[in-house]
């Protein structure tokens, strides 16, 4: 694959080379308009496993770069799988219409062959009564339809027919596998032994893309519980980044999650002196994005 040479540079001794190789790989995958169905598993079986050592890289530069890049990789995987699903649907529709035309043609050819067989039998009976020999006429008529049986059934070998069928992509299964792989990456970046405030800020800067990729269920079960741990950080810059990014996640979580999980966590943190203004600002942004937040702390 084209990115194999770039992935090989991840083993370079220079941290700048590893970081550049990562950026070039992400840009390459994001720039591809589509992938063939044979490469449906390239993200979760090849690309992401090849990057699995980056969350524990010895240099902060590489780890932060991976935190900034994972959302772009997820978006590229989502786009490519959607393109494969669309192409598979078109192939199925075209294959169905072709099979319909072929079935009609086979039926007509089979009817013609049967009529020819009936005629040949009459000729053979007439010939036998007259002393003639027309024994091969029926055999010729049964194979007169270009490699097909007299009943109009395709005699092409099954193996050849399977090879001619288009390769279909199971979008739901492949998307679930990619989401599982990206979840592991986010988990390693947030809770790993080498995790830092800069890495978490890198993830927070792309919460909107991650929200679109994961969907409501995985956001509530995986992404949101990980991001909310940023409120426990001692650095005010990280908490500020969380407040700036959480409004982008709100539209993807649903009202139940906002009322039951997200807002109570915000209220608990914002009860500290001097934080009410920030809380009101965040809730107003959530309300602007979702239109379903109406509660404020007393």
> Which structural category fits the helices and strands?
mainly alpha
- Backbone shape: flat
Which sequence of SSEs, written as H and E, runs from N to C?
Answer: HHHHHHHHHHHH
Radius of gyration: 32 Å
Low-confidence stretches: 126-155, 158-166, 291-298
| Relative helix content | over 70%
Give a short account of the largest sheet: none
Number of helices: 12
Distance between the termini: 58 Å
Strand residue percentage: under 5%
Overall average residue pLDDT: 74
What is the strand tally?
0
Note the topology.
Elements: H1 4-8, H2 15-31, H3 42-50, H4 60-129, H5 137-142, H6 158-164, H7 171-191, H8 197-204, H9 207-227, H10 236-253, H11 255-270, H12 276-290
Helix pairs in contact: 2-4, 3-7, 4-7, 4-8, 4-9, 7-9, 8-10, 9-10, 10-12, 11-12
Compose a concise summary of this entry:
With about 300 residues, this protein is mainly α. The chain has helices at about 5-10, 15-30, 40-50, 60-130, 135-140, 160-165, 170-190, 195-205, 205-225, 235-255, 255-270, 275-290.
Describe the structure.
This protein is mainly α. The protein has helices spanning 4-8, 15-31, 42-50, 60-129, 137-142, 158-164, 171-191, 197-204, 207-227, 236-253, 255-270, 276-290. The longest helix has 70 residues, at 60-129. Residues 126-155, 158-166 and 291-298 have low confidence and may be disordered.
